[in-house]
């Protein structure tokens, strides 16, 4: 089995399930050593066991991304055990249940705490991890940081707190990329499409609200949606610099990942210019201009 990332060290936050889990599986399959984080060791160990069966090595670490002391400890552990960090994926997010609970409520009818639910573990945690991750990458003159965002940063989706947080994630990628550019470190924002996560699947199976047009749209397209490992394929392609357009095209799901804010002026930026991405709106691979360069 090819192992294009053998010898590389990665951190994926929020990897107990969903997109983070899928990314960790693909990175291990590519041969990397992957540190995965979450709040519960038992679920992390399940992910780690499957990831290691794919190849590579997977190390579960209990870490709350909203707590700076725990984030600092995570990266100290990586540095002490590996002495390097090649890829950081900022994925941890604790707002999904709050989105479902407050669906269709305008911001003034939602609890003010919804802002913290959306952005503490998300945006704030992504910034904290970026700070400590960059401190390992910059001295080495190499690295890739990915933040998981969404089209909600470009147009209204779910609620105000969600959209502002995702727009800020994209701005985080763009501005960090600007400061990291001269140090050989790239920072990108990755937009998955509709993803077959465990939580969304459970919600669709339980909720019988057929009057909600958005709910019906998601339910109808869920079976052909992106797998949780699709984003992992994108991250591996970015980390290895391979042209992966053809293999992505065979997924044929309603999605796909859009990359925002190319971080370096070298191979990554050239690769991004030439890589075809599906249009998120149409799902048509002929619409290949779904790339925003900042």
TrEMBL record:
Pfam family, one: adh_short
UniProt superkingdom: Eukaryota
Transmembrane intervals: none
UniProt protein name: Dehydrogenase/reductase 1
Organism of derivation: Equus caballus (Horse)
Gene behind the chain: DHRS1
